[in-house]
Amino acid sequence: MPSDLATGGWKLAWMSSRWRARGAQIAAFTTLAAFAVFCAFPFYWMLITTFKDVHDLINTANNPFLFNLPPTLENLRVLFEDTQYLRWLFNTLLVGVLVVAITLVLAVPAGYSLARLAGRRGRQLAIAIFLTYLIPPTILFIPFSRIIGVLGLQDSLWSLVLVYPGFTVPFCSWLMMGFFKAVPRDIEEAAMMDGLSHFGAFLKVVVPLSSPGILTVVIFTLTLVMQEFVYALTFITSSSQYTVSVGVPTFLVRGDVYFWGSMMGACLIVSLPVALLYNLFLDRFVAAFTVGAVK
Fold first, then answer.
1. Which distant-in-sequence residues (6+ apart) come within 8 Å of 287 by Cβ?
2. pTM
3. Is residue 262 within 8 Å of residue 75, measured between CB atoms?
4. What is the pLDDT of residues 70-114, one digit of tens each?
5. Exposed/middle/buried for 223, CB within 10 Å: 0-12, 13-18, 19+?
6. Average pLDDT for residues 230-236, to the nearest whole number?
């Protein structure tokens, strides 16, 4: 009898622990599913609104989450035929690529220098650079306008290429400093002992190990270029020179008339590549590249 009781108690404990583990798995799955639905909902809303008929959108009696009338391509036709959306996309991409290149050229060496600059002076410089990023862009509007006027860059995309790195370089330098600090010095020293110069070790060893930081800089910079509105609206006056952030609200909001379907289509087309880029390289953002590198 005691052995039977012990066996029964062991089975009950085993079943209880199994049910607790299964309950924890269900709770974790439910939480992740709710979070995924929450994150995906804006994309679903943009997608369904893009193909909704205007009468379906303005009728408050209709279910806003479903198609109450047959889907239509009219919103996309208005976007591509009645506006210069493709031109705005090209302008945004051009400015984004140039600003990303300038930011990487300046922020990567600056972040590496700050990471390897030991002592109190290095910490003070890092804090100063980060505080520069915290300055509100509106405060810099007047001096930037003066610079653009003196250089004769009004109504030119080069004005944005000149201004935007002032916002991206400080933060990205501080960001890259954190990634470079995670790379042990022993790796560089081992590479230099194998015949590489200091710059060669930085280029061939440190930079590849810090690729998650570089990808973060690229996505951050592209996102800023796509969503910045004030400077793009002020420095650019010709519609053919607009970026997406200015052209879409300027031409798709006419008085109190909002072309919601076309606006949502424009936003969806711009936001999907960034979301896909981030998800494709998500593992590289969180992977510990230097774990076990030094033996």
1. 212
2. 0.80
3. yes
4. 888 999 999 998 889 999 999 999 999 999 999 999 999 888 888
5. middle
6. 88
